[in-house]
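fyi for ur records
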Amino acid sequence: FGEPAPAAAPAKVDAPKPADKPAEQKSSRFDADAAQEPDAVSIFVDEANRVMQGGLPALGTGIADFSRAIDNSGRGGRGYSMFLLLALAAAAALALEGLLHFVTRPAQHRLAAVAPATFGTRSLAAIAGLALIDGAGVLLVWLVCRIAGRVWFGGDTVQDVFGTTLLGALFYWRLYVLGFRVVVRPALPQARLCEISDHEAWRMLRLVSIIVLVAAVFRAFYAGLASIGAPAEAIAAGRVVTAPVMLVVLLVFAVRAQEGA
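which gave:
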């Protein structure tokens, strides 16, 4: 019998390779700052909450103080009858503006007849003439507000400041509406600078007039709060509260304009 076969050498087993480490992502200082920085919506919400929490009580106190400050009856002056004087001044100003438009109506129709673009340079002159007539009406409003402010609210009390601011708001209201009236011309379609119907022109003019009037009244109210030394938080809270009102008015205007398009 032959010699036994030599035993087979054990197979060499390779040691497992260590797993590859994931590639390290380089981080930047700017990326870290961006991750920690809140977005614009969060900033707005946080700021609004801060203003409302600290400003609403101050706003209520400011309104109460303001209502007492404009009543000068206890100091030998006018009380809330100031609003009657303001109403009279506004009525006189708007009546004079309307009277001017009534008196100049024949001239306006003559100018509007040559306002279409087919008349060339005469068209530009006609549009400028119509704008001057409307501007004269706004100038009358300014004159009445100026005189009423000097005669009735020429002092330095809170009532005088508020009354003067409201009269100024009346003037700015008519001034801003003037710019829109030049474009839509509800009563003079020949001089209209946009392609809309008479009905839509009147409706858009009314809506713009309401928006500007509401904004002007709010501006006068904030000026009244500032005149009594109301804190900035109170005025900021008032703007946060009145912002939804302005938003609703703007949405109504947008919807009405879309319906008329």
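The longest helix spans residues 121-152. thats all i got for now
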